[in-house]
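Internal ticket - ligand job 561, 1-deoxynojirimycin:
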Amino acid sequence: MAERMWWKEAVVYQIYPRSFMDSNGDGIGDLKGILAKLDYLKWLGVDVVWFSPIYESPNNDMGYDISDYRSIMAQFGTMADFDRLLSGLHQREMRLVMDLVVNHTSDEHEWFRQARAAKDNPYRDYYIWRQKPNNWSSFFGGSAWELDEKTNEYYLHLFSAKQPDLNWDNPRVRAEIHDLMRWWLDKGVDGFRMDVIGCISKTPGLPDAPEGGKLAWGGAFFLNGPRVHEYLREMNAEVLSHYDVMTVGETLSVTPKEALEYTGFNRAELNMVFQFELMDIDSGPGGKWDVRDWQVSEFKRICSRWQRELYGRGWNSLYLNNHDQPRMVSRFGQDGKYRVESAKMLATLLHTLQGTPFIYQGEEIGMTNVCFERIEDYRDIETINWYKEQMAQGERPVKEIMRSICAKSRDNARTPMQWSEAAHGGFTTGIPWLRVNPNYRTLNVEQERADADSVLNYYRRLIRFRRENPVVVYGDYTLLEPEDETVYAFTRRLGEVCLLTVLNFTAGEQTFASPSGLLPDNLRLVLCNYAGGETSVGPTLHLRPYEARVYLTAAGSADGV
Ligand code: NOJ
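stdout (structure tokens):
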């Protein structure tokens, strides 16, 4: 069994502060709003809260463009509010993980203001400059280079032009970052989620991407680049190893083998990474907006590969959505007739796999994608840029463009939290910065709290179940019937204890033949997303649409069904 660690046993809850709770009626969520909801988070049972960025920012990319790492965005409140929030979390025995966005800063950060003032400014080398751009495209469309007219050189920005990339090859930059990390850790924060940390090391010389025309995808030269592990080991030795913290790195395009280089127990880098293989399952050759169908067998293959390859050697993070991804119930379940059942089914998967589960705000009530009809209702820079680019190319009808946006826009996840059936879901007394999903009248926290069979109350049971059963955290993993296109079933074992999860991934009734000889005969049902039904494992299980069942050997503790 892997060494016990609090961050392995924890359940994390991600807050996107702009959309969580507005306390002052300006339509923007804030820290006092979060403070008012700490008892809710405690009641839910989560152990760790991760805040998407709350630092000063011009909000070109909603806080992922930081202009001062040591101050709080005025729209969100003050440092005194932050201190109250941190101690409120700690008093309730919850921990706080901050977003660390250090691949780039805002162009309004003092370092960049200095850097662009003159070529010989001491801060010039904090960023990456060229006389001529290479052919890399940026994540948000267009070239990854912007001309600085005053000094007549181009700077690199993998994201928007207002997010210049820091030059990690400069030891002064790394020392500054270590310093600001210590500053927050000394305040008492309990760890970091590291934004696109896999992009910090670029291949020397910044070569042109070989394929493509004028602009091309240069990922080969900055994803998991040549010195990334050296920089993370240094960060660990200088900073992280001196504190009892949790770290999770966002790493695009990593394979399990590469993930082990970041998270291996003997590596002294990070605790875990966010992988994107599952998030890419419905992307066609044209990338994320090119939505394609996916197969249950493919979904299982991806999850199982990560479960197997990291077991005993590194650690998985488990997530099916976040502030950049569509809502999981709309994407992998069904947000119509079987919304409740499929949201619970997916939650059962996340909370019985091996790894640390991350719940994204609103997931616990089964919030859905929004699909605004007009582009004017969207606020996300990535969505708006892509829409403009597509319209300018004029090759696809608007309807088709909006269909992709409806399926994939990041704003699906960013609509305000639905607290009650009051105006704007009880999120604000003003006008929300992004429209609330109109389904808030029937889908909100208040109603779900009062309903014992709600998605919300099911999450509470899952969280408690995980806490009471170490097999969920530390057990090994075996996939059953890999080719079955309807049911995802797997076992977890720890010593004598065996757990069996069976999930119907379809809107139809299905049967599942339990493999003879493989399962102990004293398994009994401990969790189910439907009332009634079979309570022991016969040779054939009859599953209702999106039914989820968890069985445990009789010796294990039961939650009751
Ligand atoms: C990943 C973040 O999750 C996303 O929201 C942001 O736009 C980019 N990194 C750039 O910081």
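Auto-summary: Confidence is low (pLDDT under 50) at residues 556-561. The CA atoms of residues 196 and 356 lie 19 Å apart.
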